[in-house]
């Protein structure tokens, strides 16, 4: 139940999606609806924005997404690169093997490597230029996030970016109403508002970055109730 949740503090209640016994057809429905929400509320545009800022004028890039789900974010970047004559290769990492299989079948991305692993156990043969995550960080504790930031910093050559949720009362109640009215996924109905409650305030991100010992980053608020965080090496 979310009625009595206190949005002054991050919720650490587990989302249903983080369980190990969810049927894949339910996960698939969840991903489809999240992709629709991302497209409708500007989530994809934020991801492309972060990517472009790190890409700059380069015409060749290897990008890695941790927590890639069914690969939709990487597909959006692939389409953008194809349109803009950028040579694109990518690595998608997700702990759920079913998501990786769905990505392989769903998106015909040239030069894509898909890994069904916990990102922490992955041994990258060469460092990607850019590492990113979208709607992934809020699944983790602050302690886990410190290690996640270090991973992205240490394994990227250009930098990394994060697209994730701002914890906000309007966003929380709005997404709760919208999903109750229009969603056909029990995962989305439960997890979408809880995801907002597990989201961040800017000062919390600053504290996490300080503890990770990482500088050279920017945090910008984006519609609808997101933060785009960009770290660049050697800035």
TrEMBL record:
Gene Ontology terms, MF aspect: methyltransferase activity
Classification via Gene3D superfamilies: Vaccinia Virus protein VP39
Pfam family name, one: Methyltransf_31
Cross-referenced InterPro entries: Methyltranfer_dom, SAM-dependent_MTases_sf
Residue ranges annotated for the Methyltransferase domain, each copy included: 58-212
Any one GO BP annotation for this protein: methylation
CDD domains on file: AdoMet_MTases
Keywords: Methyltransferase, Transferase
Source organism superkingdom: Bacteria
Protein name per the record: Methyltransferase domain-containing protein
Organism: Parafilimonas terrae
């Amino acid at each position: 139940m979310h009625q009595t949740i206190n949005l002054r503090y991050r919720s650490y209640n587990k989302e249903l999606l983080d369980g190990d016994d969810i049927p894949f057809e339910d996960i698939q429905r969840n991903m489809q609806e999240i992709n629709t929400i991302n497209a409708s509320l500007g989530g994809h545009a934020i991801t492309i924005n972060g990517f472009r800022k790190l890409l700059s004028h380069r015409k060749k890039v290897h990008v890695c997404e941790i927590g890639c789900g069914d690969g939709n974010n990487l597909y959006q970047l692939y389409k953008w690169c194809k349109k803009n004559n950028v040579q694109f290769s990518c690595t998608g990492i997700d702990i759920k093997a079913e998501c990786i299989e769905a990505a392989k079948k769903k998106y015909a991305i040239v030069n894509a490597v898909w890994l069904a692993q916990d990102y922490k156990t992955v041994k990258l043969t060469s460092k990607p230029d850019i590492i990113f995550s979208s709607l992934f960080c809020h699944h983790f504790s602050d302690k886990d996030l410190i290690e996640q930031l270090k991973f992205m910093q240490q394994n990227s050559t250009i930098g990394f970016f994060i697209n994730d949720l701002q914890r906000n009362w309007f966003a929380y109640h709005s997404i709760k109403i919208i999903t109750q009215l229009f969603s056909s996924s029990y995962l989305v109905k439960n997890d979408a508002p809880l995801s907002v409650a597990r989201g961040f305030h800017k000062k919390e991100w600053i504290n996490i970055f300080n503890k990770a010992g990482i500088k050279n980053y920017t945090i910008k608020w984006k519609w609808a109730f997101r933060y785009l965080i960009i770290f660049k090496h050697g800035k």
